[in-house]
Inverse folding.
């Protein structure tokens, strides 16, 4: 197990992120992701001066909150073909073998290995991130906050996370020269997650 100082897949220490006001550690239990209220977002430098932002759909996952942090865990999957940058031609290129190769690798996977507290509602989550079939260590800085209950009356919580990855570590090596000079795409991708989860109700026998 790695300690709190574990670095992200970019090789840099994890950036901090501040959650919405009024946050606190969620009650223990299994929190299931409500995929319709989840979003993953990736941002990369483009043509030296601008940034391109794309969103992805979250396919599923669970967050286990336990009394002891060592027993907490996070699992999440993201659908690669759902990438949306607002430009259909660019999105098709991203889905191709040059980038995400979505036919061979339909999902991004994250599985936590360790959780550390940064405060009452902020955590460092170390884990394994798999992109294009290559698994590398990654570190998410995560915050949590309550959100209104749904119609079923079950508790809900929102988790927000941030990390940076070095895309070439995952085989995302495509690039070309920009018209203004230099490489068209940056090497570092900023990733942010907004995950809304609902507390699982255990069925009594």
């Amino acid at each position: 197990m790695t300690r709190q100082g574990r670095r992200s897949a970019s090789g840099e220490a994890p950036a901090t992120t501040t959650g919405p006001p009024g946050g606190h550690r969620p009650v223990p239990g299994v929190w299931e992701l409500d995929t319709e209220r989840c979003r993953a977002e990736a941002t990369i430098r483009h043509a030296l001066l601008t940034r391109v932002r794309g969103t992805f759909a979250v396919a599923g996952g669970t967050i286990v909150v336990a009394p002891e942090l060592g027993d907490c865990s996070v699992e999440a999957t993201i659908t690669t073909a759902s990438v949306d940058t607002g430009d259909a031609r660019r999105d098709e290129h991203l889905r191709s073998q040059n980038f995400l190769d979505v036919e061979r690798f339909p999902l991004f996977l994250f599985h936590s290995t360790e959780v550390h507290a940064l405060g009452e509602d902020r955590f460092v989550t170390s884990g394994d991130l798999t992109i294009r079939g290559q698994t590398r260590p990654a570190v998410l800085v995560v915050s949590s906050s309550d959100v209104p209950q749904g119609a079923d009356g079950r508790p809900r919580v929102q988790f927000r996370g941030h990390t940076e990855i070095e895309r070439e570590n995952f085989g995302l090596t495509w690039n070309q020269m920009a018209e203004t000079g230099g490489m068209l795409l940056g090497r570092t991708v900023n990733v942010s997650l907004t995950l809304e989860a609902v507390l699982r109700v255990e069925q009594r026998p």
Q: What stands out?
A: Residues 150 and 156 are 7 Å apart (CA to CA). The beta strands are 29-33, 39-46, 50-65, 73-84, 107-117, 122-131, 134-147, 156-166, 185-199. The two ends are 37 Å apart (CA to CA).
